[in-house]
Amino acid sequence: MANLKEIRSRIASVSSTMQITSAMKMVSAAKLKKAQDAILAMKPYAYKLKQLLEHLSSALGDESQYSPRKGEAKKVLIVVITSNRGLCGAFNSNVIKKALELEQTAYKGKEVQFYAIGKKGNDVLKKTDRVYKVETEVFDNVSFNKVTPLAEELMQLYVTSTFDEIVLVYNSFKNAATQIITDEIFLPVQPAPSENGVQIDYIYEPSQEEIVAELIPRSLKTQLFKALRDSVASEHGARMTAMHKATDNATELIGQLKLTYNKARQATITGEIIEIVGGSEALA
């Protein structure tokens, strides 16, 4: 059995860790509220804009530079959205695992590269030697203006045929305890499925060309912005949950250590009493 000094040292160490995890949990909870409100307010708008984009793409056919190209996609860019910080459970590892799984299944046999948004994704993916680029500063303050250059860069990579398909892989926010691993095609713009054989069309004002020039880029920027906001909210939720579990585990471990400490202390006292009694009898 460990001596009393070692047990006291472990109790102090675990107590210190518990204070840190408890503080991190409260910080993440505060950040989650703001991030959750932002993504929940944005999702209906982003969904409707994406729906319009899909129907618009169906009406345009091959006329748009963002429409699917003829032939099979050979060069694929997987945009992996992770975080810059850890201590959030399986938040980052699940995204990385999904990206590598896509490479081996849906895009097997194709030339696949990764665009790592977030330090944690790059830390793992750089070992594959297929990281096209790394972006970490966007998480300093996620805003539409800050995401716009990143979205424009991805659009340019498709327009210039650097890549034939661009896919986003990220955590979609459901609630504080649940994040859904999501993979969706960013480019080319996918046409909307027909409903009962009927394709929805729109009346364009001022003209179809002007609407296309404005709506498609804005929709793509919004789609990427939503994905990043989803990831940020999911990160805070995952970290809050992870720190809550860590705090609970630390509390339980401290209880076990205190029990062990009391048993060891009782054993020490009993041993000392036996020595005293034995010495007294020897003198008698």
Automatic annotation (TrEMBL):
One of the protein's GO biological processes: proton motive force-driven plasma membrane ATP synthesis
UniProt-listed SUPFAM superfamilies: ATP synthase (F1-ATPase), gamma subunit (SSF52943)
Gene3D superfamilies membership: 3.40.1380.10, ATP synthase, gamma subunit, helix hairpin domain
Localization per record: Cell membrane; Membrane
GO molecular function, a single term: ATP binding
InterPro entries according to UniProt: ATP_synth_F1_ATPase_gsu, ATP_synth_F1_gsu
Binding partners and assembly: F-type ATPases have 2 components, CF(1) - the catalytic core - and CF(0) - the membrane proton channel. CF(1) has five subunits: alpha(3), beta(3), gamma(1), delta(1), epsilon(1). CF(0) has three main subunits: a, b and c.
Described function: Produces ATP from ADP in the presence of a proton gradient across the membrane. The gamma chain is believed to be important in regulating ATPase activity and the flow of protons through the CF(0) complex.
Stated name of the protein: ATP synthase gamma chain
Organism: Capnocytophaga haemolytica
Taxonomic placement: Bacteria, Pseudomonadati, Bacteroidota, Flavobacteriia, Flavobacteriales
